[in-house]
Amino acid sequence: MNNLIWGNLLHISFNMWPDRNTPDMPHEWKFHERMYFDDALWEEVTREMAAAGMNMVVLDLGDAIQYACHPEISLPDAWSHDRLKHELARLRQLGLEPIPKLNFSTGHDAWMKLYSRMVSTPQYYQVCANLIAEVCALFETPHFFHLGMDEETAVNQKRFNLAVIRQHELYWHDFQFLVDEVEKHSVRAWIWSDMVWDHAEAWLQHMPRHVLQSNWYYHNEFENVPAKYGRDMHAPNAYALLEQHSFDQIPCASVWATSENLDLTVEHCKRVIAPERLKGFLMASWEPTVQTSREKHLLALRCMADAKARHDA
Fold it and tell me: Residue 100, Cα to own-chain centre: how many angstroms?
């Protein structure tokens, strides 16, 4: 288990969910017109990640970067290129490899503003290509580029003003387009794997074997999973399915539901994934980088430190 990735997902932008705000929606999940981000917590969490022995941070960028190619996407107080490069250098000095993430799932693309309503059009493809190219350059050819691509379902868009779901040939055309754009820059594509839960046959037929997979599951029951978890109940079996078909994996755990999930995920995945294909583990707290979420972030890091101490030997 040496040389594993022990990573953490942090949000620079949190505009990944509904394209409209409703009175009953928790504040953190609303669409924010300005940066929803705290510099002091960002610095604290990244320092604590390094202290915990972690070695990678996946940065959900969204609309929080001043994109030269499409400034119309960026929040008014988004990070400049200089600010981003300064932060990337600081992360590397801490021993944390920064990896970019832009989620192109139609269930999580509110950050794309008007282009989220132009999905699968020539203009949409050009915008996606431009953003991928600019981010790859800013990150100086990262090892990976996380494309998201999770939860493109009707139920995940029930609050949206406009629900968009790609299916069948169109979904795979767009997916392959995004992978190809990442690979043009000598970067490996990385995605969430949950589509395999519902569409295993098509997924296994179309998914390139070289795309890095992060299946995710956030509960404690890995056997006899309760039906109350909905489509998530199929998630634990996907680790073995991906292994059966020789995909490299970085399983994703969370403190979203329980603090024991990461340790149980590591134990389960060590059993069902061959060491040469188990590339590491990712923590996703699914909390904004703001002070009201500080305790959840620090809990996630404690869980990572504990799991790493027990299993990375």
Answer: 9
